[in-house]
Amino acid sequence: MTKKQSVLFIIILFFTLSNKIVNAQHSCSISKINSSNLKLNKANATNAQMEFMEKYDVVFHEMDLKLERTSTYIAGRVKTISKSKVLALDTFMFQLHTNLLVDSVLGYKNQKLTVVRQGDIALVLLDSIYTFNQLVEVKIYYHGTPPSGASAAIGNGFSNRASPTYANQITWSLSQPYSAYEWWPCKQSLQDKIDSVFISVTTDTSNKVGSNGLLKSITPMGNGKHKFSWETRYKMDYYLVAITVGQYKEYLQYAKPKQIADSILIQHYIYNNPLAYSNNATSINATKSMVELFSDLYGLYPFYKEKYGHMMAPFTGGMEHQTMTSMGIFNFGIVAHELAHQWFGDNVTCATWKDIWLNEGFATYSEYIAAKYLTTSTNTISVLNNMHTNAKRKDGSIFFEDTSDVARIFSSEITYNKGGSAVRVLHYLLGDSLFFKVCKAYQIQFANGNASTNDLRLLVNSLSGKNYDYFFNQWIYGLGYPNYALKWNQAGNQLAITIQQSNLQSATNLFQLLLPIVLRTTTGDTIIYVEQSGAKTNYQFSFSAPIVSVAIDPENWILKSSTVAKDATIGNEENLFSKENITIYPNPTNGNVMVNTNKTEPVTLSIYNMQGKLCLTKESFKSGVLETSILQKGIYLLVIKNKEGLVYNEKLVLN
Q1: Per the CATH hierarchy, to which homologous superfamily does domain 364-476 belong?
Q2: Which helix (H) or strand (E) holds 295?
Q3: CB-based burial of residue 623 (10 Å sphere; 0-12 exposed, 13-18 middle, 19+ buried)?
Q4: Which value, in Å, is the radius of gyration of the alpha carbons in the chain?
C-alpha cells in the first residue's frame, strides 16, 4: 500500500473498532434511551474518539454561513486553525451530525483533502505530517438541515420557530451541552477553549444576525442579501458559540463600572414587535445596573472590551452565550442569572459537566444577590425562599458522575437550586468580605479557562487559611440537608435549649454549622450561635430578659427544615454546666479570661465572634486560661462543651 492507502486503512480500522464500542455502549443503555431522549453517549463520540481529538488544540474558527429566519437549513464553511499537541499529526478529527453533508474539506493551500465519515465523526487525511505546536488549517464546506431530536438543554441544537406571543419567526442555536455538532463541525471538549471566533452570516436584508463579540460590518451582497460579520477575541468554549437570525430592533445601553474609565456596550436585539420591548422594558433596562453591580462584587465584567447583550428567540428560559445571551423570556431573575454566567460559566467554565454546579449554582445565587442590592427586601426574601424551597430533594448530590443524562446535568432542583443554596451556605461560613474575595480570586486565577469543584475547594482553603473540606463533603458531595427540632425553656436567668438534628447523611455525620438562633424579647432581639456536638445537643445560657419567642436562622442562610417549640421540661435535668458550677472572670475583660467548671472531666473552651466564626479554642481539665488579649475589642460568645454534648454559652465582653 502507498502511505496514503496505509493511513486510510488505519482510519477505517479505527472506525470499525470504535463502532463496536459505540454499539456495545448503546446496547447497555438501551433502556435509558427508550425512557428519555435526553440520554446521550457523549454526543455519539466514544472515549477513544474524544481522546483522538485531544491531539490538537483549537486556536481559531471562522464561520461563513447562509441562514434565513424561515428554516434551519444551513450552508457554508467553517475554517478551523488548530495546534498540534503531538509529535506527528497526520489526521484531523471533528464531529458533525449525519443530517449535515460534508461537501469538501480543503487544506491551508486550498488543496482538497480526503475525508472518511462514520456516523457523526469525520477523519480528514492531512496534506502532511504536522509536528508539535505546528498550526493545522482545514476548511470544511457543508450543508443540510440540522436534526430536531430535542437533545440540547433547552430544545434542539438548531431551531426555527415563531414566537407565540410576538409572532416573530427566528432561527437560533443552543448547543449546551453536546449539541454544537448538530449545526457546525467542531470539537466538543470543555477543556479546549477556542482562542477567537469570527462569525459571518449571509441572510435576507430584512433580517439581523446576533452573535458573539463585536459586530464588525454589515456588507451588502446583492440579490436582497447582506452579510453580518461578528468577531470575538476572547477564549470561548464550543457550546457558547451562538447565532440568531430574525427581524430585530436594536436597543443600546452603556454600563459604567468603576474599574474602567470607558463604558461597556450593552446591545439588545429585541423582536421588531413594539410590545416586545414595552412588555420587558424594566428587566431589559436593569441589565446596566446588574453589569455594574456584578463588576463590583465579582470583578470587572470579563468581556468588557467587546460587549454584553441579549438576542431574543422563542424558547423558554435563557442561555448564557458569551457576550450575547439568547433570551426566550425576560424577567429580573433570568437577566441576573444569565449575566452572572458571564463570570461563572463563560469566563471560568466548569472543568467537566460533573462540575456544572459551579456554573449554575453561582448564577442561581446571583439572582438573590441582584435582588438584594437592586430591589426591595420583600422581593429579596421571596427569591431566597423560592431557591431553598425548590432545592429540598433528599436524593442526589450536587456533584454527580453520570454526564450522559442531560436532564440530570441541568436538574432544576439539584444543580440550580441546591447548588445556589450551597453557595449561600458557603457565603455564610466565609462572611461577606471573604466570600466576595473568593469570587474575585476565582475569576482571576481561572480566567479564560476551566475550574473544577476541587479547584474551588483549594482556593477557599487557601484564602481563608482554614479547612473547609467538611463543607464540600457535606453540601457538594453529600446528600440531603439538615432538619432541626429546637425546644427551649427559660427559668429565671437560665435559658435551656435542646436541638435534635435529623435527616442526616449517616448516624454520625452531622452538618457542621454554627447555627444562628435569635432570642426575641419585648426590648429587642439577641442572636446567638450554637454548634452541635451530636445529633442531640443540650445548651445552657445565662439570659435574664424574658423571651417571647425563639427562631432558627431567620435570615435563611441555611437550606434546612426546622421546628421550634417551648417545652417546660427542658432544663430540669441535672446540668453539669449550670451557672452555679461555672466561674468566668474577669468579664468584661481587657486581658485574658479564667474559666473554672469545678469538674475534673475534660471540656472544650471556644470563643466565637458575633458572626459565628471561631476565634479561639482550647482543650482543658477543670479549668483553663483563654488568651483573649490577642482578640480585637468587641462582644464574643464563650462556649463550654463536654464529651456528652452538654453545652454552656455566655456572652464575653472584651474592652
Answers
A1: Neutral Protease Domain 2 (1.10.390.10)
A2: helix 281-298
A3: middle
A4: 30
Average pLDDT, the chain: 89
C-alpha cell at 413: 432542583
* Cα 475 to Cα 389, 411, 415, 614, distances in angstroms: 16, 16, 12, 20
Domains of the chain, by residue range, sit at 1-149+181-242, 247-342, 364-476, 483-566, 579-654
Would you call 169 exposed, middle or buried from its count of C-beta atoms within 10 A (0-12, 13-18, 19+)?
middle
With contact defined as beta carbons under 8 Å apart, do 321 and 242 qualify? yes
Residue of 308, 514, 343, 553 lying closest to 436 (CA atoms) = 343
Write down the CATH number for the domain with range 1-149+181-242: 2.60.40.1730
Mean pLDDT confidence for 326-350: 98
> Is 152's pLDDT higher than 70?
yes
What are the residues facing 596 on neighbouring strands?
A: 583, 623
pLDDT at 7: 47
**CA end-to-end span of the chain, whole Å?**
90
CATH class for the domain made up of 483-566: mainly beta
- The SS3 of residue 421 is helix
Q: Is the pLDDT of residue 356 over 80?
A: yes
Q: Do domains 1-149+181-242 and 364-476 have the same CATH topology?
A: no
Helix (H) or strand (E) holding 311: strand 308-312
DSSP E strands in 109-178: the ranges are: 114-118, 121-130, 135-144, 158-162, 169-173
Output the CA–CA distances (angstroms, integers) from residue 371 to 277, 358, 376, 380, in the order listed: 22, 20, 7, 5
pTM for this predicted structure: 0.86
3-state helix, strand, coil in the chain (%, to 5): 25, 35, 35
According to the model, what pLDDT value does residue 579 have?
Answer: 57
| Joined grid coordinates for residue 453 | 469543584
**What CATH number does the domain located at 247-342 have?**
3.30.2010.30
State the CATH class of domain 579-654. mainly beta
Pair type for strands 158-162 and 135-144: unpaired
Residue type at 433?
Answer: S
